[in-house]
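User: I'm curious whether this sequence folds into something compact or stays loose and floppy. Could you predict its structure so I can see for myself?
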Amino acid sequence: MTLLTVVSCDTSSPEVPASMCGTRIEPGLSRPLLEPLGEFDEFNRLDPEHPKTAPCVVSVDGDPALRFRLAFHSESPDLMKWANESSIVGLTNPSVIDLGFEASVVGNEGAIATEACRTAEGDRLTLSVVAPRVPPAKENLRPAIEKFMKAYMNNTIAMLGCGGTKR
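Assistant: Here's the prediction. I'll summarize afterward.
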C-alpha cells in the first residue's frame, strides 16, 4: 500500500507598495521595515500641491508599520533633541549620521533628516520615519533604515519639487 500526501503551499507574498505617502520608493528598501508583511493600508494627510506639516501612517494588517511626519520650518531643528524626546519623535540609541542632507539622525527604529526645501511653509523640510513594530532594542535594522531614509528623503524632495535653492 502506497500513501501519497500532497501538500499545497501558497508561496505568494503580499506586494510591498512602490509608493508610500505620495513618494515612490523601491519596495526592496521598505520591505525589511514592514515585515512581517500583510494587507497594506495608508492614512495620508500630505498634499504635495500645498505642502505643510502633515502625518502619514502605513499600516500592515491594521497595525501601524511606518509613521511618517513631514514638517516645514524656517530654521533647522535640533534633530538630536527630537530624537531623544518621545513626545516629538523618540528614537532608541540615536546617532548623528551623514546621509547627504543638512542633518540626519538614525535610531534603532527610525530616522530623522532635514534638508533645504523652500515652500510657503518654510525653507527647511524635516522628515521623520519611525517603524513602531521594530523592537527598540533591535539594532540590526539600522543599515536598512539608513538606506530607506536616504532614498525616501531624496524622493520626497523630488516629489515636492524643492531642494536647495531650486525654488
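Summary: Residues 1-11 have pLDDT under 50 and may be disordered. DSSP finds three helices and nine strands in the chain.
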